[in-house]
């Protein structure tokens, strides 16, 4: 598997434009080109290694109560666990080991620590030791504002409003297209309106139907 991946990486060739002139081609030995279909596969492999690292880290030392769950979504990672100083620094230790293996370093300055039911002063102490941010409720995540009252209807009203608004525009768009087609082709007679005129912009004497089929 490693030789196969390495062969895919080293078989790539590229050239650079200098003053509009293509220079001699050179080989890629590290990294992938933008849009390379292999990048998704390698990303899954690296993420799986981080998952295995945390799964094994739970059983590293039987004398230490290290119980942490983790969730991955795209390039975001969430680590959940009981509020203990040993748990927090165990996460940092596993992330450092992960950095030495594939060479991917977690940017702690872009990471945040959230303590639920924990005094703000206690969280601030660990935040200063780790060098990360201090997260408080509420915070946005994937377009949803997460707060301490997610079991209440009021916390989901914004999401429901967005879904309803998207549905409204979808129905409106469908009705406009249907009405336009019925008006043009319903009657059994010669179609006096050409398709070119239907798609033409209204400023050019058309019906402006192109925007509905291109969007």
UniProtKB/TrEMBL annotation:
**Any Pfam family:** RVT_1
Q: Where are the transmembrane segments?
A: 159-185
From the record, what ranges are coiled-coil? Answer: none
Residue stretches making up the Reverse transcriptase domain:
1-146
* InterPro entries reported for this sequence: DNA/RNA_pol_sf (IPR043502), RT_dom (IPR000477)
Please indicate which superkingdom the organism of origin belongs to: Eukaryota
Please provide the record's keywords in A-Z order. Answer: Membrane, Transmembrane, Transmembrane helix
* PANTHER family recorded: REVERSE TRANSCRIPTASE ZINC-BINDING DOMAIN-CONTAINING PROTEIN-RELATED-RELATED (PTHR33116), RNA-DIRECTED DNA POLYMERASE (PTHR33116:SF81)
- Protein name per UniProt: Reverse transcriptase domain-containing protein
């Amino acid at each position: 598997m490693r030789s196969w991946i390495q062969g895919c990486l080293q078989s790539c060739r590229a050239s650079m434009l200098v003053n509009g002139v293509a220079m001699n081609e050179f080989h890629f030995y590290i990294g992938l080109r933008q849009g390379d279909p292999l990048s998704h596969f390698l990303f899954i492999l690296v993420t799986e290694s981080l998952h295995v690292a945390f799964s094994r880290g739970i059983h590293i030392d039987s004398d230490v109560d290290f119980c942490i769950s983790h969730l991955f979504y795209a390039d975001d990672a969430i680590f959940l666990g009981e509020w203990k100083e040993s748990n927090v620094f165990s996460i940092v230790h596993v992330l450092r080991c992960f950095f030495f293996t594939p060479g991917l370093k977690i940017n702690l300055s872009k990471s945040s620590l959230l303590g639920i039911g924990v005094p703000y002063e206690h969280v601030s102490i660990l935040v200063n030791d780790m060098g990360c941010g201090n997260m408080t409720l509420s915070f946005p995540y994937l377009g949803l504002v997460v707060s301490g009252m997610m079991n209440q209807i009021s916390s989901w009203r914004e999401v429901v409003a967005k879904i309803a608004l998207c549905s409204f525009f979808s129905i409106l768009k469908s009705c406009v297209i249907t009405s336009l087609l019925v008006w043009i082709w319903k009657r059994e007679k010669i179609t006096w309106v050409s398709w070119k005129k239907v798609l033409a912009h209204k400023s050019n004497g058309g019906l402006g139907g192109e925007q509905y089929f291109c969007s």
